[in-house]
Amino acid sequence: MIKAILIFNNHGKPRLSKFYEHYSEDMQQQIIRETFQLVSKRDDNVCNFLEGGSLIGGSDYKIIYRHYATLYFVFCVDSSESELGILDLIQVFVETLDKCFENVCELDLIFHFDKVQYILQELCMGGMVLETNMNEIVLRIEEMNKLEKSEAGLGGSQSKAITAVKEMNISNITQKIKDIKLPELPNLGSIKLS
Amino acid sequence: MTPPVKGDGMRGLSVFISDIRNCKSREAEVKRINKELANIRTKFKGDKTLDGYQKKKYVCKLLFIFLLGHDIDFGHKEAVNLLVSNKYTEKQIGYLFISVILNHESDLMRLIIQNIKNDLSSRNPIFITLALQCIANIGNKEMADAFAQDIPKLLVSGDTLDSVKQSAALCLLKLLRNSPEIMPTGEWTTRIIHLLNDQHLGVVTAACSLIDILVKRNPEEYKACVSLAVSRLSRIVTSTYTDFQDYTYYFVPAPWLSVKILRLLQNYPPPDDPSIKSRLNECLDTILQKAQEALKSKKLQHSNAKNAVLFEAINLIIHIDSEPNLLVKACNQLGQFLSHKDTNLRYLALESMCLLATSEFSHDAVKKHQETVINALKTERDISVRQRAVDLLYAMCDRTNAEEIVKEMLGYLETADYHIREEMVLKVAILAEKYAVDYTWYVDIMLNLIRIAGDYVSEEVWYRVIQIVVNRTDVQGYAAKTVFEALQAPACHENMVKVGGYILGEFGNLIAGDPRSSPLIQFELLHSKYHLCSPQTRCLLLSTYVKFINLFNEIKPQIQHVLKQENNLKSSDVEIQQRSVEYLQLSMIADADVLATVLEEMPSFPERESSILSSILQKKKPPSDLANQQQKEEKVEKVEKTVMNGQNYETGPKIQTVNNNNQIDLIGLNATPPSNKTQTVLTSTTPVKSDQEALLDIFGGPVPVVAATVPPVQANLDSLFSDTFGVPTQRIASPVQEIPQFIPILSIQDNHIQFVFKNADILFENESIKILSKCEYKQNLARLSLTFMNKSNFVYQNFSVQPILGNDSIRVLPRPLDSNVLQSQSQLIQILNCECVNDFSQLPQVLVQFSCNGTQSRFELNLPIFLNKFFDPAQMDSQTFFSRWKNLGNPGQEQQKIFKANYPIDKDRNSQILVSFGWSSLSGIDPNPENFCGAGIIYTSTQQYGCLYRLEPNRQAQMYRLTIRSNKESISKRLIELLDNQF
């Protein structure tokens, strides 16, 4: 079972947290901090699995993570999950985000934190994989967008606007996650950002 | 930075987010947030009603603030209000807020559940999905109760959209986690299992997760899923990657589903049905073969997905553990991964091999990779991987490679990461013990272990070293020599001092012949460490010193000098003080014989597996190990808990923990039962009295300091004799098997049933107590005397026998006991006067209690008093008998039983049984001479009851018919019961 899904940036700032078991708010923050500390001190070319988190699940607990550009994507799971399967799931999540946001970057996760949650809800539910077929997820999100637009009564060119902002802005935060082709060339992922 | 504007126009939100991002400091951020919170609060409380959009915006802001790590304690009601909205986006935000923020015990829960119910019954699938997502997020008991019916229906209904079905499956799974009682059974079972055949692979994947948890709850009920799962798997494995279109992930067909199915199958033993079994084996073989094929893509995703399936297949092969062919193939595949360039694969290969090493079929195949694994230990950069390598080395270790593996692990220990050192120490200690052939090797390894990682050597480990040295005479001299050498290092770990102190105290004499390790040198070497050690270790060293006095009389003055030193005699540590005083007195007063007895070498520890070590290690097994054996783990943990409880884990020798038994055995006064009370010992009349008094005299001298802190004399005795070297005895191996220990009696199986036909016999006997019962009866009265004989060497204190109330039909009045102490090998007699008030079938009982050695025995004893005991036999002639017989013809008065003969039908025997039962056996009454007839009167305080019987044997059929008539139904019934099976 997936116990939690966390995204935080290179400085430990949480960008998404989703817990599939009940933890108090304090505990949630502690888990995020602990996980960041465990993950951030690791080199980028070591393995993507990690034990030693103390706050969730005791010995039956593994952290499976991936580092993309400015962001860490972390899945906290128990031993009933396949490590490589989860690793692929992270990839599906990122690719889906990329499709939904057209070259996703950290900024998208900040301004559209609600949308990220919705995308995640299509991927996982109650701590289990719900859908792994990326096209299907994207389709559902697009339906959602259509509804949203029709309800707002605007044909707003949201995505275009964001893209424009991203192209203008040279801050780290708009670094396209996809551009850092981590899976193929893991070394590039280790670019350290101040 | 310019904020991007969201298309749907929640501009306020974007502005707010930008503001937060522009804050230069944490304080500024908090200030901005507080301002916003105040604003939202006013809006929510304000007179103006907010429209849906505004509510949505504010709720969304609150959500954002919450996700930044701030507490949100309002807005819940507004969020719930959004659920009522018909607008998807508003509903969506409402649900999101509830899912993320809402506490499980919210008082809004009923309202939420009502809204969810409405959405679930909506025609709009997108609303249904929102509702399901919310249930899956919260999934508490209330929701389980509310939706236990609806969700399974959604799940199996033909009208439900695939995407809704997927959600429903996982939603049900979530509810089941918290509320196992809603487990669908019966007709649901088949329908749910058949989801494995669904066209839509997304549905199958979700269903697979659901079935997995259902199977874990009730494997029998869901057994049918095995064959469906195997055929589904087979269809996936044999397909090409083009078959599944969207569910093919980087050329691998449905990898997630394959993994799920392979996991599901690990819940069951290999299929019984040979065709299913062979199909499954084919699948597994195919997966292994595909691993050898060239990659279809260079992308990492492709090999990841492929290997995810492969590793799960290997897990299943290991789980099945009966296909040597597959096991060896799996092992070879993993062997390739051990040197793969992808760190993840090396990690996983080590992890899976750990499991393979435990299978008899593949253990040897795993061993072939020993060198690679050792190499991994040395060269891997990643601690996660190194840890797996340690686990694997531990798992693959056996007698043939133990020396090398232990050597490598010891070597690694010097540079190992701190947080795995303790675990490694345990592993090394266990392997060294388990596979030691030559115990000098064991001693070397363990001392090295303490030298290299002394801080990580737990008490259990060094206790165990001592235990083994004490038990193996062949290694004692070597151990003494080696610790002596180890102690010569300028800086040596305190644990080394402890082990050294103990071993030299016991076996220092074995090396004393060598002038380089003469008694004085040994003593001075140990004492040079004394001032650096903790009080606990000092106490141990003091015991070593007093043992030296016995071993080497020539250094007695030096030792006495140390004991006399102010910092010992007047130490602020009570234990040090007490030991110094006592040992000093002992060395001055006792003669050589007494010293030799008191300070004798420790007896061997009971041989057994070091349970503490193995259980501690069990706990630290890698989680993957545990995945397949979660139940085992629970058991282990339970066992471990009991072990922990049973052992005294306080550090340092303690007077209070001392067991009285040790003391006696050490001094060799077996004849005297130990006692908790000083008086008993003092007034004991056993023949060894004089010895004991002599010992007590030792302490007759003024020992004011001790007396002040530990008043009872007994405490002194305890601490001195038993704890001289009692530390490891107490902690590692409890002396249960070693020295007879009194086991409290908490329940007994007595022989009361044989008293139906007799009045005196042994009622109960075990190794510690014997109970005789003798009873006399007169009409409705009985006088029972119970003789309790103490067969043990212990004294039973506070002995009492009390009737258990509640049986009004028979009154039991105990006479006072002569004494409440039952001495060893002696007896106490308890007289009980009983009165039969009414007929009864339940035996009267007494509660016997006594304390012994700090344990409390307490058990119920049946008094062997049966209804028939209150019989008086009646003589009568045939006519009277049959006229009375006829008079007792009302329903219920007659009870009859027909039964098979248990014994050869023997007239004399039967007659004897009937007479000893208490009534008459009248001859010449029944027209059939084979039959028995008789009568008796039962006396109770209230009434007398006449009883008649007729026993008719049938020799041909080897059967009896027993008929009893009395004027009370319950009496007839009881008498039949009592005579049942007696003929």
What would your notes on this structure say?
The complex is a heterodimer of chains A (194) and B (983). By secondary structure, chain A is an alpha+beta fold. Chain A has a single domain (2-145), classed as Beta-Lactamase, CATH 3.30.450. Helix content of chain A is 42%, strand content 18%. Chain A has six helices and seven strands; from the N terminus they run E-E-H-E-E-E-H-H-H-E-E-H-H. In chain A, the strands form two sheets. Chain A has a five-stranded antiparallel sheet, with helices on both faces. A two-stranded antiparallel ribbon of chain A has the order 6-7. Chain A is globular and about 50 Å long. Chain B is an alpha+beta fold and 983 residues long. Among the domains of chain B are: 220-320, no CATH class; 322-396, Leucine-rich Repeat Variant; 746-865, Immunoglobulin-like; 868-980, 2-Layer Sandwich (TATA-Binding Protein). Chain B has a five-stranded antiparallel sheet with strand order 3-4-5-8-7, with no helix packed on it. In chain B, strands 11-13-14-15-12 form a five-stranded antiparallel sheet, with helices on both faces. In chain B, a hairpin with a 2-residue loop joins strand 4 (769-778) and strand 5. In chain B, helix 18 (343-356) runs parallel beside helix 21 and helix 30 (556-564) runs antiparallel to helix 32 (574-589). The longest helix of chain B is centred in the N-terminal third of the chain and has 21 residues, at 300-320. Chain B starts with 10 loop residues before the first helix and ends with a helix. Residues 1-8 and 619-739 of chain B have low confidence and may be disordered. Chains A and B meet through strand 2, strand 3, helix 2, helix 3 and helix 4 of A and helix 1, helix 3, helix 5, helix 7 and helix 10 of B. Chain A: Residues 1-147 form the AP complex mu/sigma subunit domain. Chain A: Pfam families: Clat_adaptor_s. Chain A: It is found in: Cytoplasmic vesicle membrane; Golgi apparatus.
